[in-house]
């Protein structure tokens, strides 16, 4: 310690005598930021609680990340719906599958999956369905002709209002435009006649097509128009519906609903992998399945239901289908329905023909999970979803299995964890084949230890 100047020592002593002892002056310390960080206590944003299913681990704090829309609804979540975004090969599929498997641990859960991807003649969810003893509902035009699965848009389980709304949606999706008043009237009177007269069996689409081609005289008289006018108004409608009866989509919807479809099973998988994903058939199919489920599956029985849709841009990018699902989301929220939409890019939906409807559906998704995206896509996603700047900046740097989670403004970076028992069900042969180049599923650096006990301990009902 350096010697003080004698005059300075006398001054310090006199000051201490008058005012008391002065505080010792600390000499500055030179160090690195890596060493200085130990001076500060570690901090982390609060989690979502400990009730629900474990997703994985928060990257920055190391804490377990637990999420459940049903537990959070009404407290931290204004709506239980969820949007999952990200480019292929970053872990979206693994997250969806493990989330469903973990939700099914609870006895009051039920899940419907629209499985639009597959390989070797089966959908991606085939292994999980098989492990749970579930037979997927495989919609295939060719198989339907040989006694395969049929879903009847005129099933008596669907209300007459729902049937008419579904018929309009099918026609509008196929035509790419809304029905005009005259065509809508022709469809309405044909449907009303079939509903009133066909009572000894399930009405089918062929009945509607026949009545559109051959309208009854009283339908024309009620509007004080010529019968030929009513026939002309319904011609385009009949041609569109004829595609479901005799065209490339025949077999799936032109007969009574197949008996034996178990709507009480914990998992219901609609295998759409045999349908061309780029054809008009996919949005038509999703519209039919969506309305059919709304009227036959969603019931006020206090069950918590999850409706997971892969390739959801088929729904959100069509104005007519999006309107149906928008109503389903609003209606289902009162009955405990959580809608999970999985898409690759937000631009797939917000720049499409149904931008208005897409924005409304996105607004209802209070949970958003974003996997790695390119920088420009990440910036666009951040603007639309209102993500903080730091989250937008790290999205392009995320590695497979890690995602940004935004749960109604609570933003975390989460690493998804997979158990040993889940691994063979989550990683299909197709996924493992792609893992070496762009899937990344075999590059998770998490040790392959069993997390079953951890899941049982942390997933509190």
From TrEMBL:
Protein name per UniProt: AAA-like domain-containing protein
Record InterPro entries: P-loop_NTPase, T4SS_component
Pfam family, one: AAA_10
Organism: Actinacidiphila glaucinigra
Compositional bias annotation for Basic and acidic residues: 441-461
UniProt superkingdom: Bacteria
Region (Disordered) residue spans: 432-461
């Amino acid at each position: 310690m350096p010697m003080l100047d004698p005059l300075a020592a006398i001054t310090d002593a006199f000051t201490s005598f008058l005012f008391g002892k002065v505080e010792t002056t600390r000499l500055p310390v030179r160090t690195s930021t890596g060493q200085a960080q130990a001076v500060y206590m570690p901090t982390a944003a609060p989690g979502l609680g400990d009730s629900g299913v474990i997703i994985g681990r928060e990257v920055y704090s190391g804490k377990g990340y637990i999420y459940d829309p049903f537990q959070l609804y009404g407290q931290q979540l204004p709506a239980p719906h969820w949007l999952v975004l990200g480019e292929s090969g970053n872990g979206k599929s693994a997250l969806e599958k493990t989330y469903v498997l973990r939700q099914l641990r609870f006895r009051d859960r039920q899940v419907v999956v629209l499985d639009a991807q597959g390989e070797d003649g089966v959908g991606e969810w085939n292994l999980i369905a098989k492990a749970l003893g579930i037979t997927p509902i495989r919609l295939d035009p060719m198989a339907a002709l040989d006694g395969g699965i049929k879903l009847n848009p005129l099933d008596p389980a669907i209300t007459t209002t729902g049937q008419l709304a579904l018929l309009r949606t099918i026609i509008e999706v196929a035509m790419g435009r809304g029905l005009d008043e005259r065509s809508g009237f022709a469809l309405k009177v044909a449907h009303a006649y079939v509903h009133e007269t066909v009572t000894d069996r399930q009405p089918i689409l062929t009945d509607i097509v026949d009545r559109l081609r051959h309208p009854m005289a009283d339908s024309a008289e009620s509007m004080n128009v010529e019968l030929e006018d009513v026939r002309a108004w319904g011609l385009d409608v009949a041609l569109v519906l004829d595609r479901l009866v005799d065209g490339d989509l025949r077999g799936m919807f032109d007969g009574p609903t197949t008996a034996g479809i178990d709507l009480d099973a914990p998992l219901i998988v609609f295998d759409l992998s045999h349908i061309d994903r780029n054809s008009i058939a996919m949005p038509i199919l999703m519209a039919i399945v969506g309305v059919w489920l709304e009227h036959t599956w969603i019931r006020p029985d206090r069950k918590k239901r999850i409706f997971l849709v892969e390739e959801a841009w088929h729904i959100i990018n069509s104005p007519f289908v999006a309107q149906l699902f928008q109503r389903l989301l609003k209606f289902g929220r009162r009955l405990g329905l959580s809608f999970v939409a999985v898409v690759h890019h937000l631009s797939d939906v917000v720049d499409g023909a149904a931008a208005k409807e897409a924005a409304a559906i996105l607004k209802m998704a209070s949970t958003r999970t974003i996997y790695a995206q390119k920088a420009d896509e990440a910036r666009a996603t951040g603007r639309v979803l209102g993500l903080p700047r730091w989250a937008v900046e790290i999205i392009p740097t995320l590695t497979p299995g890690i995602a940004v989670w935004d749960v109604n403004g609570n933003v975390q970076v989460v690493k998804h964890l997979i158990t040993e028992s889940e691994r063979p069900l989550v990683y299909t042969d197709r996924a493992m084949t792609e893992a070496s180049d762009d899937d990344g599923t075999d590059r998770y650096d998490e040790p392959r230890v069993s997390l079953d006990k951890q899941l049982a301990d942390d997933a509190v009902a």
